[in-house]
Amino acid sequence: MSLKDLKDVTYFDLNNQINIPKNNRIQLEKDHEALVAFFAENVEPNTMKFATLRDRFDYLLDNDFLEPGFVAKYDFSFIEKLYDYLLEQDFQFKSFMAAYKFYAQYALKTNDNTTYLESYTDRVAINALFYGDGNEELAMHLADEMIHQRYQPATPSFLNAGKSRRGELVSCFVIQSTDDMNSIGRVINSALQLSRIGGGVGMNLSNLREAGAPIKGIANAASGVVPVMKLLEDSFSYSNQLGQRQGAGVVYLNVFHPDIMSFLATKKENADEKIRVKTLSLGLTIPDKFYELAKANEPMYTFSPYDVERAYGTPFNYVDITAEYDNLVANPEITKYKINARDLETEISKLQQESGYPYIINIDMANRDSAVAGKIVSSNLCSEILQIQEPSKINDKQMYDHLGTDVSCNLGSINIANMMETTDFGQSIDSMMRALSFVSDMSKLDIVPSIRKGNDEAHAVGLGAMGLHGYLAKSHIMYGDEDSMDFTNVFFMMVNYYTLVSSNKIARERKETFKDFELSKYADGSYFEKYINGDWQPKSEKVAALFANHHIPTAEDWRQLAADVKQYGLYNRNRMAVAPTGSISYINDATSSLHPIVNRIEERQEKKIGKIYYPAPYLADDTIPYYVSAYDTDMRKVIDIYATAQQHIDQGMALTLFMRATLPEGLYEWKNGRTDKMTTRDLNILRNYAYKRGCKSVYYVRTFTDDDTEAGVNECVSCSI
C-alpha cells in the first residue's frame, strides 16, 4: 500500500468518533484506537525496513538523504549505543493527532513520497547527533531530553537537522530600513533572500520619511511607507520557496510616524486595492508616551522622520520619543502633524476586531527591561523576539559604508509537563542551551551581511515553553488563579537561572562572551539584585509540592551566579523567548504555548483529509473542570500569567487575546449594564491592562464570531515552534 494510494483505512473514522458523545461521555478511547489503526494501516506497511542500523545509515548516506559530515564525527559504535538507549525508552505517541502530524510533516520520506524512512525515534537520534556536533556526552543528553519530550527544537531545526537536502535551521529574522533608496532596496533584497530560505521576516519602516515629505527640496515628493509595503508584499509572493508556501513578513511602524493612519488602513476590509496589503502582517511599536496621551485624552503629534534625523543626527527609530516628546513638539525645524490619541487607539482596536492586527510592541518597556547595551527597535513575525539592532549605511554602489546588525532567531521550547519530571533541571536546560547555541554558531547567512554580523556578535537564542495549561489541569490547578501564577513564577525563574548558568559555563569554556558584555547589567551585577534581595520560593504548599524534587535557586545561588557571570561573562546576549507553538505542540501532546486551550476537543481541518479531532492533553473525567476555553476566560487572567512569566524572560512572548463577538455574561465587570457585544473599548482596556502589567508585546487578537468562525487567526508557519 502506497502513501499515495491509502484506501479503506479506519483511523479517520475512529478519530472522528471522539466528537460523538456516547452515554453523555466523550469517547476518548477512540483516539487511542485511531492511533493503533494508523500505525497498523499506514505507518508499518509504508516504512522501509533495514536488516541493521549500519545498513540504514549506509542507505541514507549513499542516497543523499543525510549529510555525511556530522555522522563522521562519531564512531559508529557510539551511534549504535545511542540508538540502543533510545529504543529502550520505548517512545509511544499519546494521540492520533501527534502521530499523524509527525508522519505527515516531519518524517523523512523517499524521493517519490511513497515510503517513510524514519520514525520519531530516528528523527530524535539524528537531531541529537547533529546538535551534539561530535560530543558524545552532549548527544546522549540531547537524545534523553528529546525522546522524553522535555525539549523540542523549533520546527525548521527539528525538521531539517542532519538532512543533506534541507532548508535552514533558522527561520525568523528582523531587519530595518533607513531613510534612503539604497537602504530600501537592500531591505527588499534581504526580504527576497530570507523568504527564499523559508524565513519569516520582521521589517521596521519607521525611519522612512512620510508621504508628502520633501525630497531634495522638492515638496510632496515622498511616497511614504505604504508603497514600500506593497513592494515587500510582492517580494514575499514571488520568493515563495519554489511555490511550496507563501513568504511571510510583518512590517512594524512607530505610532508617532505621520503615516500611521494610512498604514493601518492597508488592512481594512474595505481598503482600496491600490493600498491594501493582503498577506503582510502589521505591527506597531508603541512608546510609553502614547499611553500617557491617550489616558489624558490629549492630542498627539506625529513627527517627520526626516526632520527628526536631521535634528538628532540619528535615525528616527533611535530617538527616545517619550523622553524627547516635548522637545520635538517645541522644535520649529521638525514638521509635525496633530491627531487625537484616543481616536488612534480606537482605530487600532477596530482593526484588531476586523483582522487581528496590528501586533503591539511596548518598545519603551522592552528597552527599559533590557539588560544589554544598545536599542531594541522592532520585533519578528510573532512578536516574541526583542533584540538590539544597529542601522547600516549603504552607499550608491549598494555596498556597506557601515555594516550594522540585524537579528536571526534560534528557537526551541520546553514541554513544561515533561520538564517537571526531569531528574536534573539544570542539566536539562544546559543541553537545550547548547543545542540552541550550536544553531547560532553554525548559521552563516552571508546573503544578508547585517544578519550574519548580528548573529556572530550576539550568539542569541530563544528558549521558550509550551504546555502550561495542560500541566495546570493535570495538577488540578485552575488557569489564572493564585497557584497557577505561583507555579508560573517559580518555573520561569528557574529557567532564567539555569539558562544563565549554562551561558556562563559556555563563556568560561570558550573564553568568549557576547559583544559588549562588559557594558551590560549582567556585568555590573545590577541584573541580579531583584533575585538576591527578593523571595522567589513557592508561596503555596501545593506549588511547593510540585517542585519538591527540584532545586529551587536560593538568594545565595543567585549571589554566586552573579559573581561567576561577572568573572567569566555570558556567551548568549539573549536567552529566552516564548514563541507560539503550532504543529509541534500536537506532536508533544502539549497545549499551545502558555495559553488556555480553545476547545477540550479541538477540531482541525487538514487540507484534503477532512476534520481531525484532538483531545486536550491529560483530558479525563477529573481534569475536565480545569479546561475552560480561552474564549470563556477573562483575558486579564491570561495577561496575568504572561506578565508573571515576563519578569523572568529577557525577550518577549507571543501573547494572544481570545475574544467572543458576544461576550459571556459577567466575564468583564465594565460590561455590566452595557451591550454584551465586544467593542473597541474592551480591547482598549485589555491592551492598557497588558501594558500596566508589564507585557512587552501583544501578538494578535482572535475573535470567535457569532456565526461560529474565527477572525484574526494567523498560523505563524515560520516562527511556530
UniProtKB/TrEMBL annotation:
Q: Where does this protein have coiled-coil stretches? A: none
A GO CC annotation recorded here is:
ribonucleoside-diphosphate reductase complex
Q: What is its EC number?
A: 1.17.4.1
Q: Please give the Pfam families that the UniProt record associates with this protein.
A: Ribonuc_red_lgC (PF02867), Ribonuc_red_lgN (PF00317), RNR_N (PF08343)
A single BP term in Gene Ontology = deoxyribonucleotide biosynthetic process
Q: Give the reactions, separated by semicolons, that this protein catalyses.
A: a 2'-deoxyribonucleoside 5'-diphosphate + [thioredoxin]-disulfide + H2O = a ribonucleoside 5'-diphosphate + [thioredoxin]-dithiol
| Role according to the record | Provides the precursors necessary for DNA synthesis. Catalyzes the biosynthesis of deoxyribonucleotides from the corresponding ribonucleotides.
Family label: Belongs to the ribonucleoside diphosphate reductase large chain family.
Mind telling me what this protein is named? Ribonucleoside-diphosphate reductase
